[in-house]
Design a protein that fits this description.
263 residues; alpha+beta; 8-stranded antiparallel β-barrel; 5 helices; 10 strands; 22% helix
Length: 263
């Protein structure tokens, strides 16, 4: 009976020839917006649940993560907060919950992300000098963490030092700091996704032990002129709501983060 009803509906003139239904009330602008928001929320819920079920922060496109990658692409095609790199929602602490860990990322980055027991955060803030700072924070426990700060640049907080990166980052042919897109491959899509990119240059890092009682410098001389170009990067925000952000980095990595509550 159910199949017969479906076939009957499929063969009605209004369906077969796409005639408008005179009894259907068109969605108002507000209703259409609400429908779009509900669709985005449903996709976010599905993505978060799939990541939780995956039990692995690293995504492997060649294995069983097709559903997660499909949801990422659907969200990226869904309208979200415009001009996300300068939107108020971008500022604060974001927790990394999933990422693709491609071969172009640095060995240090792969090691940190591979360690599932460590929580990884990204803090986006403006310091007392009115500079935009992006901090990568790896928490090893209640009393120990690694914090790597980067000077950042957007149209709201431009940084003259952040010219376009010139080199891929390979040193003597070796992938020590990660391999970046450069040139035409690295161009920002301002037409379709304006103000979506945050440029940055790593500037300082420290291991913070015993709740600040001991600081050990991160073993990469970010300010060394020879390395300055190699420690530049960017992230393009391809989807952002008040709770979920999807970003794609200059080394080809995709990041899925959730907004942490303000303390």
């Amino acid at each position: 009976m159910k199949t017969a009803l479906l076939l009957a509906f499929a063969l009605t003139p209004s369906t077969a020839f796409n005639f408008p239904n005179p009894f259907q009330t068109p969605l108002s602008g507000k209703a259409s917006i609400n429908k779009g928001k509900n669709n985005a929320i449903a996709l976010e819920d599905a993505l978060l649940q799939s990541i939780q079920n995956n039990d692995n922060r690293l995504l492997d496109k060649s294995k069983d993560d097709a559903n997660i990658n499909d949801l990422i692409q659907k969200l990226e095609a869904t309208p979200s907060i415009p001009e996300p790199s300068i939107a108020p929602e971008i500022y604060g602490r974001w927790k990394l919950i999933s990422t693709t860990n491609v071969n172009t990322s640095s060995p240090i980055q792969r090691t940190a992300v591979d360690a599932e027991k460590y929580s990884i955060y990204q803090d986006i803030k403006v310091n007392d000098n009115n500079q935009l700072i992006v901090s990568q924070v790896v928490k090893f426990g209640d009393k120990a963490q690694l914090c790597v700060d980067a000077l950042a640049s957007t149209s709201a907080y431009p940084l003259s030092e952040l010219t376009e990166r010139q080199g891929t980052g390979k040193i003597l042919g070796l992938n020590l700091l990660g391999v970046s897109l450069v040139g035409d491959e690295a161009k920002e899509d301002q037409e379709n996704n304006p103000n979506a990119r945050i440029k940055f240059v790593f500037d300082e890092g420290n291991f913070d032990l015993f709740n600040g009682g001991l600081k050990i410098p991160y073993p990469v001389p970010f300010r060394l002129p020879l390395l300055r170009d190699a420690v530049k990067g960017w992230i393009d925000i391809t989807y952002m709501s008040e709770r979920v952000r999807i970003s794609r980095g200059n080394k080809g990595t995709t990041f899925i983060l959730v907004k942490e509550d303000e303390e």
